[in-house]
Amino acid sequence: MILDFKNPQLLATALSHRSSLNERTQSGTTAIESNERLEFLGDAVLELAATIYLYENRPHEDEGKLTAYRSALVRTETLAKLAKELELDKQMFLSKGEEQGGGRDNESLLADLMEAVIGAMYLDQGFAVAQDFLAKYLFPKFGEILQSKSYKDQKSLLQEKVQARSLSTPVYRVLKAIGPDHNKEFTIEVLVDDEVWGVGVGHSKQIAQQAAASAALKKII
């Protein structure tokens, strides 16, 4: 792990997907709860840290542009990529069924994991440490976001691209919605001229649609 935890139990919890709890027989530090509460906390820590970073580094941008930048910086795809780079996917505790179903490559699950680890860092060593971690590993990705203009709304970008090719308007369709109402996960596909162009996963329909649009844009580019 790239950060030493004073309380290893916090890290164990951050790495524990809810599916693993009934199967965990690990010795030593064993999670007694899933990472969902830490994910909730980490989301808030991440948003504040990203807001401060952008406020300080983009002094001439208006609120609307800063909001778009922040959304791109903390979105599922960006966080999942970081989790992979840090090899958190290999350390995550999953049930056998979740793992066989591709859980270690699930972008939504990986983004949640990343947020949980950030929340655990905050509890373990405070906001400054979490902020330094993000400054080292996440915020450097902002340059890529600017260059690719991926801070723009993905659904709008996809619409522009397909219209430029005289194709039909993208249609978004829910494939499945799993989990309790307070933590539901949606899988949505986007179709153009009745052909599936991308699939996205998220904790809201809007997030899943954006992820699907982002996947479709990769197909075009």
Question: Can you walk me through this structure?
Answer:
This protein is mainly α and 221 residues long. It folds into two domains: 8-148, Ribonuclease III domain (Ribonuclease iii, N-terminal Endonuclease Domain, Chain A, Orthogonal Bundle), CATH 1.10.1520.10; 154-220, Double Stranded RNA Binding Domain (2-Layer Sandwich). It is 56% helix and 11% strand. It is built from eleven helices and three strands. It has helices spanning 8-14, 36-57, 63-74, 76-85, 88-91, 96-100, 107-125, 127-137, 142-148, 154-164, 205-220; strands at 171-178, 185-192, 195-202. It has a three-stranded antiparallel sheet, covered by helices on one side. The two termini are 34 Å apart.
Percent range of helical residues: 55-70%
The fold-level CATH name of the largest domain is: Ribonuclease iii, N-terminal Endonuclease Domain, Chain A
Rg, nearest Å: 18 Å
Question: What share of the residues does DSSP label as strand, in percent?
Answer: 5-15%
CATH architecture of the largest domain: Orthogonal Bundle
Strand segment tally: 3
Structure class: mainly alpha
**How many domains comprise the coordinates?**
2
General form: globular
Secondary-structure element string:
HHHHHHHHHHEEEH
CATH superfamily of the largest domain: Ribonuclease III domain
Largest sheet: 3 strands, antiparallel
Order the strands across the largest sheet as they lie in space.
1-2-3
Report the CATH C-level class of the largest domain. Answer: Mainly Alpha
Mean pLDDT: 89
Counting DSSP H or I runs of 4 or more residues, the number of helices is 11
Low-confidence stretches: none
- Span from first to last CA? 34 Å
